[in-house]
Amino acid sequence: MAQITEKTLVIIKPDGIQRSLIGEIVKRFERAGLKLVAVKMVVPTMEQIEKHYTLDPSWRQKNGEKSIKGYQDKGLEPPTDDPLEMSGMTLEKLKKYLSSGPVIPMIWQGLHAVAIVRKLTGGTEPLTSDVGTIRGDFVLDSYERSDVDKRAVRNLIHASGSVGEAEQEIEHWFSNGEIFNYRLVQESVLYDVNLDGILE
Ligand code: GDP
Ligand code: MG
């Protein structure tokens, strides 16, 4: 069962910072009731970025298959039929994108943190991300355009895709000493069985 201590990793990517959206992005997670338990600014190295995307050994295969299918669904010829070669190309673009400036990794904690953050983040491609989500409301990129320009799609933030992915990614970006255990007063309203102590 989901725990109220569930954690997820969010990274505000370089375009999110350049677009002055740090506050807006933080606000959306904060107002949903999630608790910020770690945050810092870093310029990631190429190695850090490659490791981030390949923490799941099946990522190369799955990401490659997804991208190839994306081309085929649009009636376009993919640059290669080999999923590993395809994701290798994507990875190079992601390394260039994410190392182009400072990024802000953060850990958000709360009930269903992973799924709630994914919902607020929206789908990967801004062209089709739902209105009301971060990617749907604040950016306008597409695979079509980013593929022609041979760059990664600019989608403002990264958010862990599953609880397992979140655990690995948190360990990759943060040391234990950088993660805080503390109580938020609003947690009793979010999680207590009885709303005692409101009426005087
Ligand atoms: P996320 O979890 O929503 O960020 O998406 P994924 O983990 O599936 O993909 C990671 C990154 O790979 C995305 O941010 C994109 O840069 C890239 N990517 C994923 N799917 C596609 C695709 O179908 N086409 C292209 N061109 N890039 C993709
Ligand atoms: Mg992902």
TrEMBL record:
Pfam assignment, any one: NDK
Domain Nucleoside diphosphate kinase-like stretches: 5-181
Keywords on record: Kinase, Transferase
GO molecular function, one term: nucleoside diphosphate kinase activity
Family statement drawn from the similarity comment of this UniProt entry: Belongs to the NDK family.
Top-rank taxon: Bacteria
The organism's taxonomic lineage, starting at the top: Bacteria, Candidatus Portnoyibacteriota
Entry EC no(s): 2.7.4.6
Enzyme kind, highest EC tier: transferase
PROSITE patterns xref list: NDPK_LIKE
Protein name: nucleoside-diphosphate kinase
Organism: Candidatus Portnoybacteria bacterium CG11_big_fil_rev_8_21_14_0_20_44_10
Swiss-Prot/TrEMBL cofactor(s): Mg(2+)
